[in-house]
Amino acid sequence: MDNQIFVIAERIKEMRMLCDFTVEEMAQATNCTVEEYIKYESGTEDFYFNFLFKCANKFGIDIAELVTGEVPRLSFYTICRKGHGMPIERQECFSYNHLSYLLKDRLAEPFLVTAKYDEANLTKPVPTSVHPGQEFIYVIQGRLKARVDSYVEILEEGDSMYYDATHEHGMIALDGRDCYFLAVVIKGGENHGSAI
């Protein structure tokens, strides 16, 4: 396992203990079993971005703080130059580049996402996740098969989609090549999909 996984896992465990949450409470907050949560927290299992996102929300901290250990300090504005940002590679077919991780008290989380093409994904159901808030995606390059609940849409370059992220949602790249898209996650409450 990657050393970064162990470092982040240790940070998650420390935050859980500081917040006085039980393993069971964290498993429920992250939509996984207690056994799965224990594997994530011990660093023996790599975690998905959605898991990190839900942990950060439960702890009431910024996802950047959970991943890097540093608290965002900028309060007015931030610039992310081309090719920079905070990389988060925590899911097999996706890599995320956080575009505003230095700004504190963000109402939204903007990411440049690469959906890596994998032919095996074409024969399986689109994997989905759920989280509080809403999400906006805009396809920059390639084609994307997006699923929200039982609805499936094919998005081309220049197409966008906005949805309630408390519904199952997921996407895969099509046409034998990676797909690049902007994803903006708008934060919402624990049990509803409206933005704050």
User: CATH first level of the largest domain: which class?
Assistant: Mainly Beta
Please tally the helical runs, counting DSSP H or I stretches of 4 or more residues. 5
Q: CATH superfamily of the largest domain, please?
A: Jelly Rolls
Contiguous uncertain segments of 5+ residues:
191-196
Shape verdict:
globular
Tally of domains: 2
Widest β-sheet, arrangement of strands: 1-2-3-9-4-7
Descriptive notes:
This protein is 26% helix and 28% strand. With 196 residues, it is an alpha+beta fold. Helix 2 crosses helix 3. The longest helix has 17 residues. The radius of gyration is 16 Å and the shape is globular. 30% of the residues are buried. The C terminus is likely disordered.
Care to give the gist of this entry?
The chain has 196 residues and is α+β, with helices and mostly antiparallel strands.
Tags for this entry?
single chain, about 200 residues, alpha+beta, 434 Repressor (Amino-terminal Domain), Jelly Rolls, 2 domains, six-stranded antiparallel β-sheet, three-stranded antiparallel β-sheet, 9 strands, globular
